[in-house]
Amino acid sequence: MRQGSAPSLAAQRSALQGLKVLELGQLIAGPFAAKTLADFGAEVIKIEPPGSGDPLRKWRMLKGDTSVWWQVQSRNKRSLALDLRTQEGQALVRQLAQEADVLIENFRPGAMEGWGLAPDDLVASNPRLIVLRISGYGQTGPYRNRPGFGVIGEAMGGLRHLTAEPGRVPVRVGVSMGDTLAALHGVIGILLALQHRHATGQGQVIDVALYEAVFNCMESLLPEYSAFGAVREPAGSALPGIAPTNAYRCQDGAYALIAGNGDSIFKRLMGLIGRPDLADDPGLADNAGRVARVQELDEAIGCWTAQHPVQAVLDALEHASVPAGKIYTVADIAADPHYAARGMLQQVQMDDGSSLSVPGIVPKLSRTPGSHRWNAPQLGQDTDQILAEMGLSSQQITELRVRGIVGGQA
Description:
The chain has 18 helices and 14 strands. The protein is α/β, with parallel strands linked by helices. It has two domains: 277 residues, Crotonobetainyl-coa:carnitine coa-transferase, domain 1 (Rossmann fold); 88 residues, formyl-coa transferase, domain 3. The strands form four sheets. The chain has a seven-stranded mixed sheet with strand order 8-7-6-1-2-5-14, with helices on both faces. Strands 9-10-11 form a three-stranded antiparallel sheet, covered by helices on one side. Strand 1, helix 1 and strand 2 form a beta-alpha-beta unit. The longest helix is centred in the middle third of the chain and has 24 residues. The radius of gyration is 25 Å and the shape is elongated.
């Protein structure tokens, strides 16, 4: 069911209103980028294979016959069920691309070219078109043809090596972080390209590799290796080179995350835990001195937290203006008043009349905020309308459906 914008947003112009986007990807990275644009008013036409649709429709936990994840990833989009393997389907994409501002795809390199949809040709035909290409290893280089999912990008980008306790098997982040980072880099690329197009009228092709998006977030990893030959190793819940900051076990078995690494913050923290000797120690006045004695500091903080339940620890730290928090589960998130106050727990009505909680929209813009305009579409629910807007007659649409080139609701 379609869900309109909140009344307070009805009269406001969306940041990306009027931007026409074609989404040819599936699963996570490409669709996440398109979802982000759709949240801020872009008109997104999602092209899916007839009959099956995007595999994400069936991933993880289903409500009825559709994943609840789908309601997050595909809100504010229109669905066109179209077979890209057919010449007629490819011709329709080329026609849509003539009027589009942005095309997003995250197939393996060469797939678009194999369908006669080479991005360079599409841009040559529509010089204002911006094409975002997301792949595991990028469109060039010796690994370009390898299949690559987000978890592989996380590993090659350097993240997986660090997500472990020392001496134990590196673990993966529990969500598709590599895909999401690539999608967000893709959105940045689109916005940069739109600014360039505004000045010159020229579109362009954006090449985002999953591993590069992860690597771009790895901070000082490479320069430390270059300058000192240092290979950063897993450190569990600590952050090497910054102290004290760690997860500390409390009396009730829960953990408090405490970041006491600022110079003045450190002094307040030591005063709170009853260690003025450490607070006033000149050798601990800066981060370098604290890093040299991090084990001593962690033991002192851990001794204090072990005497109190986690909530008492957090309350005391807040009163002392020391950054701290607990490790949230989704149950904690759903019950948290700050999440609610910030509009991050949105309730949407499903087709069956039930209510579903979905994440709110970020970032928050003061003049052109994003909005949940309508729910994720059923497979091909907008096919006939989109094709009619392209100038196809009812008879032509019926013939395409009979031949299996398009699908969805008749």
